[in-house]
């Protein structure tokens, strides 16, 4: 348990598998946000699905699970579908929070836990046909969510080769509901992005999706990589007057706010449940 995290703090699981490489960073982000976090292998969770009963948040972090064989996230999604389908859906139905980052986003789409699943959407190769690694500007969508405020702006890194979200509705004329868009890429002024500000060429510059109830979030950018001021690429720049920036002048770690909002949501739910039990 991280120093300063209370024993009654909200609990979270971070899921890892062969090829996951962002699990420790995601654990760190959630602990900084105030959660008690367990890093668990998919085989362990498969054998002990009741672990989900004791947590309020599940994170599927980034990486290249199982080498992205067949397609990105496909093998892990298949394992979760075959071994943990009922447990995952029960977790979501009871209001559990789920975040899938990069490879985890790919997994959530394949599982059908996000709009665009069930063969209506897919994450494909970037239009550049290359791995894209840079910091990007994001703007949150219009949906109410435990994870962000509508319209909130972010500056967060991306690192992926298969992040282009494409939309394949059953009805050729159907459009992706704007309420299901968690984030979209923008340029520095907040306008609609084109390459390289949009690193992959996604449908309507989609950078993330949110479930209709707001509890399940998938995003390609990596919020866990900006949870401390020193993660920002310009944090060491000297001020024009030659002075070292003060602590107040350091960049605000915008990625951390996503995790903090989720943990605070769980804390508020817990407090409300205690209050209701006390008055019943």
CATH class categorisation:
Alpha Beta
Number of helices: 5
Second CATH tier, the architecture: 3-Layer(aba) Sandwich
Structural class computed from helices and strand pairing: alpha/beta
Question: Strand order within the widest sheet?
Answer: 2-1-3-4-11-10-9-6-7
CA distance, first residue to last residue? 33 Å
- What is the string of SSEs from the N terminus onward? EHEHEHEHEEEEEEEH
Number of DSSP-assigned strands:
11
Give a summary of the structure in a few sentences.
This protein is an alpha/beta fold. Helix content is 25%, strand content 22%.
Describe what this molecule looks like in 3D.
This protein has 280 residues and is an alpha/beta fold. The protein has a single domain (11-279), classed as Rossmann fold (3-Layer(aba) Sandwich), CATH 3.40.50.880. Helices cover 25% and strands 22% of the residues. It is built from 5 helices and 11 strands, in the order βαβαβαβαβββββββα. The chain has helices at 23-32, 42-47, 74-93, 103-111, 254-279, and strands at residues 11-16, 36-41, 57-60, 97-101, 121-124, 132-140, 153-160, 164-167, 181-186, 206-210, 216-219. A 9-stranded mixed β-sheet has the order 2-1-3-4-11-10-9-6-7. Helix 3 (74-93) packs across helix 4 (103-111). The longest helix has 26 residues, at 254-279. 44% of the residues are buried.
